[in-house]
């Protein structure tokens, strides 16, 4: 007879082997993700693919290359919202964009953009501030599936009311409906909002920095990572940002534990909006 302790131990071993197989076979390293939430998602995949055990899921991963996109989609959590945490977008609108306005070109990196709701939100802020034309947004995610949807910019119409309230709470003065067309039960965001957006796959575990960035948004992604991996990401963001550049994390994320925190100062600690420290280099200074 097996005890609950035996079951947990076996599942722990199976999870380790699954993570190893994913890395060795396909090069995706999940070894530094927070174990509890990773296990939850792997068990959801076990249920979804009806494999019964994590070991059987690992066998499919090893023997069926075609299953990889489904696994990656299941391991990522692409939930988001337009103007999620409106107070954050209000501060971006009122305190961050006026500083960015002094740069001749504005580079923005949105890491972990999921289905793109925050990308369109930010594009709307830039448009309304008259900054869109000189802005370039790099919107990245690990999941190719999520990026496909982000590019489409099509969302369920049931979100319209909540998103409209978020937009107003973030200081929006028009109607959010000005930016999408509604058809049946879908909303399609205006293509013009993505004319300066580049969507690309980028893995925060293993890929490199973007350079000369003025604003990095990476919200509700680090929460899935272990502390050392979070610190690696903070280092990536620091090295991507010009001095004085802005970093925006998720409301439940913190950099207090991280060695890299000394390279940032809080603009609004409660809303997790920071600036990279250091004297402005001439080439980074606003004109
Ligand atoms: C909860 S969503 C966050 C969406 C949006 N930023 C927000 O706050 O609403 C987390 C996203 O992080 C992405 N992600 C997870 N691991 C990643 C990694 N190693 N590199 C890049 N993106 C990753 C997932 O694919 C998912 O789309």
From TrEMBL:
It comes from the Bacteria. The keyword Magnesium does not apply. Residues 3-277 form the CheR-type methyltransferase domain. Pfam families: CheR, CheR_N. Gene3D superfamilies: Vaccinia Virus protein VP39. Keywords: Methyltransferase, Transferase. This is CheR family methyltransferase. It comes from Rhodanobacter ginsengisoli.
